[in-house]
Amino acid sequence: MSQKNIVVAFGGVSPEHEVSVLSAMQVLSALEDSSYSTIPLYITKSGRWLTGELLKDLSNYKDLPKLESQSHACAFVKDDIGRTLLKEQDSKGLFAKPKSFPVYSVICAFHGSEGENGSFQGVCEMFNIPYSGSGVLGSSVGMDKVKAKQLCEANSIPVTSSLDFYEKDWEDHQETILNEAELLGFPLVVKPSSLGSSIGVKKVGDRDELIEAIETAFRYDAHLLVEEAIHPLMEINCSVLGTAEDCRASVCERPLGTTETLSFEDKYQSGGSAEKGMASADRVIPADISSELTETIRTMAVHTFKTFDAAGVARLDFLVNEETEEVYFNEINTIPGSFSFYLWDKSEISFKDLMEELIGISLKRHQAKNGRIRSYETNLLSEKAAKGIKGLKGTKG
Ligand SMILES: Nc1ncnc2c1ncn2[C@@H]1O[C@H](COP(=O)(O)OP(=O)(O)O)[C@@H](O)[C@H]1O
Ligand SMILES: [Mg+2]
């Protein structure tokens, strides 16, 4: 392949759509002077797949209908020698021919929903193309807070006490759920199992607030989590880079919220500038904590990354009781905002290096997958083999 095309995939049907656009613009500009060509793959809020040069410029996103109308619908297709191409599905000029680009690797720059929960990763697996970040398993378990906590518990990673329930349970057994929740002790935190960006997350101090928070959270998700609130709370995040077999931890960060629970506004709207993306949120790097606590968290971050079979760059978020310094796993972000580059920047890796490393890891994982036997020459449907199958037309069984 002469041209090494990196498909930068972003957007998507997700509440974090805009954040994903920012992350993607960072990737595109970081790879501008690299040996790769970059091809944007923008998934609109309604789920259309688009490509085209205009999608590389952040200022074009101010007028989305115009941008959509000037970009090309696109799809992954297999050519007749089995390569996967990102292919334009339409042409914009009378004599223009739809272009197609052989895919060298995909950088997944989605945040939230199908772009981060393993669905898009599954599409890449089906097309057998290298892609950045965690695979289907790590991505999907990582997106589900209930399953993520269960996996941690089974692997001796401390988590807060909690209970989870579905909407039907709530309708049928409200009293029991409230009593069980109260046994955990107020204050409590209510959260939807598989959202992000603090949407639907609420700290509550009594039964009435709890009921209200639960009703609100069910507007976002059919599966909820109620957990003990850590107080006094200190949040510490740490990024891990590599594969489950070989990975390392970054420096730690302490994000600063204006209220105790970091809100969507704290994360993305508090005077953040587009180029900086997530890096502009208020944070202390390296976290102003003891070296012992730093090492505890970095070790736990690596152990958690391996437990989830994560890959590429992930950010592990921990809740720390500021008084006792007890550490609890809170969540894994398998595609962290701005790829957590600002944590690696401080560890002497630039954004561009980080992207090159992500591409390298994607290729390594792809080679490892393809180096194994994945299909068999024997045709089990050949006439002889199919003979014994009862109840099927066309067999003699
Ligand atoms: N158990 C808890 N105790 C205290 N605060 C919490 C707890 N869980 C979450 N929070 C607060 O709520 C914020 C959002 O919760 P989180 O689980 O990280 O959801 P999201 O996936 O939406 O980021 C956290 O950053 C933290 O400030
Ligand atoms: Mg969070």
SSE diagram, text form:
Elements: E1 5-11, H1 17-30, E2 37-43, E3 49-51, H2 64-70, E4 72-78, E5 84-88, E6 100-102, E7 105-108, H3 113-116, H4 119-126, H5 136-143, H6 145-154, E8 162-166, H7 167-184, E9 188-192, E10 202-204, H8 207-217, E11 223-228, E12 233-243, E13 246-255, H9 264-269, E14 283-284, H10 291-307, E15 312-321, E16 327-333, H11 341-345, H12 351-370, H13 383-386
Parallel strand pairs: 1-2, 1-7
Antiparallel strand pairs: 2-3, 3-4, 4-5, 5-6, 8-11, 9-10, 9-11, 12-13, 12-15, 13-14, 15-16
The structure holds adenosine-5'-diphosphate and magnesium ion (MG).
Polypeptide structure, described:
By secondary structure, the protein is of the alpha+beta class. The protein has three domains: 5-131, Rossmann fold; 161-228, 2-Layer Sandwich (Dna Ligase, domain 1), CATH 3.30.1490.20; 231-362, ATP-grasp fold, B domain (D-amino Acid Aminotransferase, Chain A, domain 1, 2-Layer Sandwich). It is built from 13 helices and 16 strands. The chain has helices spanning 17-30, 64-70, 113-116, 119-126, 136-143, 145-154, 167-184, 207-217, 264-269, 291-307, 341-345, 351-370, 383-386; strands at residues 5-11, 37-43, 49-51, 72-78, 84-88, 100-102, 105-108, 162-166, 188-192, 202-204, 223-228, 233-243, 246-255, 283-284, 312-321, 327-333. The strands form three sheets. It has a seven-stranded mixed beta sheet, sandwiched between helices. A five-stranded antiparallel beta sheet has the order 14-13-12-15-16. Strands 8-11-9-10 form a four-stranded antiparallel beta sheet, covered by helices on one side. Strand 2 and strand 3 form a beta hairpin. The longest helix has 20 residues, at 351-370. The N and C termini lie far apart (49 Å). Residues 270-277 have low confidence and may be disordered. Bound molecules: adenosine-5'-diphosphate (ADP) and magnesium ion (MG).
